[in-house]
What does this fold into?
Amino acid sequence: RQIQQEVASLNSQMEESLSVSGALLTKSFGQQQRQAADFDAIARRIRDLNLRRALTGRWFTVGLNLFGSITPVIVYWYGGHRLIGDEATLGTVVAFGTLIQRLFWPVQALLGVQVAILSSLGLFERIFEYIDLPHEMAEKPTALALEHPRGDVRFEDVRFSYDPGVEVLHGISFAVPSGHFTALVGHSGAGKTTTAYLASRLYDPDSGRVSIDGHDVRDLATASLSHAIGMVSQDTYLFYGSIGENIRFSRPEAAEHEVQEAAKAANIHDFIESLPDGYDTLVGERGYRLSGGEKQRMAIARALLKDPAILILDEATSSVDSRTERAIQEAIDRLVRNRTVIAIAHRLSTVLRADEILVFDHGVIVERGTHAELLARDGEYAAVYHQQFEKHGEELTPAK
It folds into this structure.
């Protein structure tokens, strides 16, 4: 069991330190020797444990082998005396000596079975730990398929906690009608991303109800729910492969012109076409060959290709400059007419045109309304707005 735990630690350490991001971070801070020392320490523990396992029961094995080697000598010595005294035949002595040796071979083999079984049990124990984990979001046998989703999202007195007794959301209630653009704003840790994850059923609420088109998400089939919702998270993940493969990941059967249309809508088509290999350009591990803004726009294109009824944008413009941010916002403005959009943003410039803005604070919605209404209320939203823009002598208004 200890060996399996240490091997898992070694694999995790290798994956983290030898990945592109881990290697860059290690070199940036000059921690190569520390990473090598950590690897060496784990490898030494694995070596010592393997030696202990190999030496388990060896003294008993040595004794048995010694006894097995001495026994034929005793048999032939005693049998020789009996043979001289005509008390036994030569065939009997030889047969008995051979039988003794044949008897010891399976006994010696069986000695290693216990160690092999215990080693296997240690491995299987870790495997079964994962197999026996309960499904957090199990699909009901009577789950409904969401046919032709409209995109009506509703939260009804939703409470949620990651750890028992420590609530993250405290009775959240709001509705996002089909085709509306709703923005969730607030400081970090206020519960915005958790709310979005509940809508896509990455988690289930402790109490309350999250519904889409009047159906509780817990009553919907997972496949149809995934088909209805597209998400662009703040931590953009790209697979090792080409740009086209990464965009097409959300809909593998999509035609080439559909991939290009999605890229145009995300304002990244021209950049892709400027590359020597175009859509066949490899992005590298986790997309390290692309800038943050380029990866973000690729993630948006991937979500748009899926063409979901509900689009969740979690800080979708967090890694782009002002010019790119404006281009992406224009693309989003053209798309919200036919789909429900829930956008999470710290930068208020991306949510000024939202039909409704919900201001979160410590898991509670403290304000709601349009941009103009919240500014007139001069509350939490207005304070954040003034902090972001007026200190730079700027004032943003929704584009017409």
